[in-house]
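Q: Given only this backbone (264 positions), what sequence would you predict?
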């Protein structure tokens, strides 16, 4: 069965998207990303070198655009103007690359999204021809507005960036999925494999993570676990779980045709 993720008209076999920050070195970054099976790799333009610093090692040496779809992001931006400027730079560095991840943060402590600035930036970027995947709150009204602007994917947080707290409000995620027609990808807050599986079981189209892998005691092993969790969660969603029954036990095997006990 063909069950690929479609983003901006392009098909991907993996529904796990991963970041490139917080690893101890490029070798660990490369090994973890390969173990994750991810095809879309997000790169913080303000924190990573992809050619803007010619005298420093470039991420493109280990993550070539010929192998991965690069997703430049605006991590560290707190205004719409800064975010737009950053993605314009990424477009120049990556030869008119249009697929980007927009995030405009509200404060450096919580890293909660500033949805007002996010909406303003999204309008400008979409008008300029960018394919915008957008990090936002789990507010279904804001998600609908961003989809209406023309964003190609809505990326609500599960919990705060880097917190590892998992999915705190599954009900809002469901509301978002019910309202928007573009892919909904959980972004931020995933801490371990079960969090990723739950997101997929809810019906999310994908999961994006960085810290959950990079900050694990064994990042490469965790990357492999996340790959399997996303696959399992997606399969469970497609299979359709059994209904929950409160205090309604039923045998797991048929009761008809049972061998009767025989008295001596």
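A: Predicted residues:
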């Amino acid at each position: 069965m063909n069950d690929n993720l479609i983003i901006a008209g392009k098909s991907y076999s993996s529904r796990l998207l991963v970041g490139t920050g917080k690893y101890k070195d490029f070798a660990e970054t490369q090994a973890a990303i390969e173990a994750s099976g991810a095809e879309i790799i997000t790169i913080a333009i303000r924190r990573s070198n992809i050619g803007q610093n010619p005298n420093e090692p470039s991420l493109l040496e280990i993550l070539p655009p010929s192998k991965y779809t690069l997703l430049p992001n605006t991590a560290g931006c707190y205004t719409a103007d800064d975010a737009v400027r950053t993605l314009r730079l990424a477009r120049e560095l990556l030869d008119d690359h249009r697929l980007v991840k927009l995030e405009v943060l509200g404060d450096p402590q919580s890293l909660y999204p500033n949805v007002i600035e996010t909406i303003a930036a999204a309008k400008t970027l979409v008008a300029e021809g960018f394919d915008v995947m957008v990090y936002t709150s789990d507010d279904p009204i804001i998600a609908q507005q961003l989809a209406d602007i023309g964003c190609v994917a809505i990326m609500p947080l599960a919990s705060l960036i880097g917190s590892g707290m998992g999915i705190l409000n599954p009900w809002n995620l469901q509301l978002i999925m019910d309202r928007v027609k573009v892919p909904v990808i959980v972004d931020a807050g995933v801490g371990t494999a079960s969090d990723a599986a739950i997101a997929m079981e809810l019906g999310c189209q994908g999961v994006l993570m960085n810290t959950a892998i990079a900050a694990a005691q064994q990042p490469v092993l965790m990357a492999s676990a996340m790959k399997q969790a996303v696959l399992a969660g997606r399969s469970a969603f497609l299979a359709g779980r059994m209904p929950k029954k409160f205090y309604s036990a039923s045998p797991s095997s048929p009761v008809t045709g049972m061998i009767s006990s025989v008295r001596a």
